[in-house]
Amino acid sequence: MGHIGIRDLEVYAYHGVYPEEREKGQTFYVSADLYLDTWKAEHEDDLDASVHYGLVCESIKDYMTREKYLLIERAADEICENLMKDYPKLNKVCVKLYKPEAPIPMPFGTVFVETSRSWTEAYIAVGSNMGDKENYIRQAIGMMEETRGIQVKKVSELICTEPYGYTDQETFLNGCVWIRTWLPPEELLKRLQEIEHKLHRERKIHWGPRTIDLDIILYGEEVIHTKDLSVPHPDMVNRMFVLGPLDEIAGWAWHPVEHKTIHQLKESLNEREAEKHD
Ligand code: GSY
Predict the structure, then answer these.
(1) Separation of alpha carbons 223 and 239, rounded Å
(2) Residue 195 near residue 214, CB atoms below 8 Å
(3) 53-62: string of b/e by CB count within 10 Å (b at 16+)?
(4) What is the atom index within ligand 1 of the atom nearest the CA of 164?
(5) What does the alpha-carbon distance between residue 125 and residue 217 come to, in Å, rounded to a whole number?
(6) CA pseudo-torsion sign 219, 223, 227, 233
(7) Ligand 1 pocket member 18 (CB < 6 A)
(8) Helices (H), the chain
(9) Can you tell me the distance from the alpha carbon of 208 to that of 170, in angstroms, rounded to the nearest whole number?
(10) CB 184 within 8 A of CB 221
(11) What is each CA distance from 25 to 31, 50, 60, 76, 230, in whole angstroms?
(12) Would you name the residues annotated as active-site residues?
């Protein structure tokens, strides 16, 4: 991964807690580190393979001046998140925002905040077994696409599957979605639960019928065990309705606990299921 650095870009803006800061404004300085794959730009001398740092500076000025924020934390966050959205070639962005004229009643050099964002590849299993199943799933994917911090990269075929676990219910429609996200796992979970909620998901019977189900299957190669979240999904290795669609879009993805690819996990589940029927 290569890196483009911008140092001390001067921007006049109106962020601050005090009314006079918001009326008169002051000078801020922005430094940004933009991480991307620069191999092609280095070898082909082609600007289209990189990001145009002049345009990035214009964009930073725009993000800094289109709103007034109370806090420099918020303004720096806005720069980071908008750069990630508007420049898809960037894998990671680190921003430092300096406020040398901050209202501090004693001599000082400057104050600054630093923040960063980077994309993580993640995989979401989608399922529905109520009403217009395909419509619920397509709506959920559309809502993921609209969510700040989530980009949908690929969607598998949707397949009809027999209910697993609690079997006395409608057949399911299942698929998998490959996303990239800069949301931390707990925040990603919250956004997915909000989408489920908007699509009238009710948690009545455990493993029971649902309009939409969105499960985080893998989040990078992280292993997470919190009160609300276990990733990789603990039962994914037993669910063909997860491994099948996931193998279609990301067979090479790595399971950090089983130390196998998704394709290998699917093959071994196939073998176990074949043995059961022998
Ligand atoms: O989170 C899984 C929901 N679910 C499913 C499912 O999505 N598909 C199939 N075939 N059976 C299921 N049982 C449950 S619970």
Answers:
(1) 19
(2) yes
(3) eeebbebbbe
(4) 11
(5) 6
(6) positive
(7) no
(8) 19-24, 39-44, 53-65, 72-86, 133-146, 185-198, 240-250, 262-277
(9) 10
(10) no
(11) 19, 34, 17, 16, 46
(12) 99
* C-beta 174 within 6 A of ligand 1: yes
Residue ranges and CATH numbers for the domains of the chain are 2-118 (3.30.1130.10), 120-277 (3.30.70.560)
Average pLDDT over residues 36-55: 95
Within 10 angstroms of residue 202's Cβ, the number of other Cβ atoms is: 12
Nearest atom in ligand 1 to 165's CA? 13
Cis preceding linkage at 232, omega within 30: yes
Q: What is the mean pLDDT of residues 189-214?
A: 85
Q: Of 8, 97, 87, which Cα lies nearest the Cα of 52?
A: 87
- Which atom belonging to ligand 1 lies closest to the Cα atom of 127? 7
Instruction: Read off the DSSP letter of residue 236.
Output: G
**Mean pLDDT value across residues 249-265:** 98
196 pocket-lining for ligand 1 (C-beta < 6 Å): no
Whose CA is closest to atom 1 on ligand 1? 213
Shortest-distance Cα residue to atom 10 of ligand 1: 163
User: Can you tell me the distance from the alpha carbon of 242 to that of 134, in angstroms, rounded to the nearest whole number?
Assistant: 16
SS3 (DSSP) at 196: helix
User: Per residue in 13-29, pLDDT tens?
Assistant: 999 999 999 999 999 99
* Ligand 1 touching residue 87 (CB < 6 A): no
What is the residue whose two structure tokens read 């000078």? 27
d(CA 53, CA 38): 13
| Residue 163 CA, ligand 1 centroid: distance in Å | 6
